[in-house]
Amino acid sequence: MDENKIYTKKGDKGETSLLGGTRVSKNHPRVEAYGTVDELNSYVGLIHSLTANKRTKEVLLIVQERLFVAESILASENKEVLTRIPKIVAADIELLEQEIDDMNEHLPELKYFLLPCGHYIVSLCHIARCICRRAERITIELLTKYPFDDIIIKYLNRLSDYFFVLARFEGLENNATEIPWIAK
Prior knowledge:
The protein is mostly helical. The chain has helices at 29-50, 54-74, 79-84, 90-104, 120-145, 151-173; strands spanning 15-17, 23-25, 113-114, 180-181. The longest helix is centred in the C-terminal third of the chain and has 26 residues, at 120-145.
């Protein structure tokens, strides 16, 4: 087989390999979890490409690296492989919290729920927030069947908060009007 080809044909019957080599169905809960985190990571890349804010670009690259770590952890049930994978640590969550606090200093008080619109990048941040919440739910379900360090859930939870505040901050940066949802 040509080593430069991207396709292997090994998944043509609906199976894939976890890190460590275990073959599983492509609808295995681990594949669903790391696949959803991968989807999120792609949206983070899109937001990174569109933001003009230098600090946001820096943080989003860190987030992308941390999401790859999360994907790797979710993709492995092999304890030996897990020892070679970097970890998500409390400092990763603290970075998100600090960024949330820093952005919030510039934002008006939130008095209403907001419609996820107003500017292209604002909407993308909300899409990332929703995918992050889905990744969190799927990861919580995975944890009930396959134990692993639950710091990934804490990270995803804080990350979804980060995307909400980032949406508001990007709106401010792009002179977008926040549109409140008022129950009628």
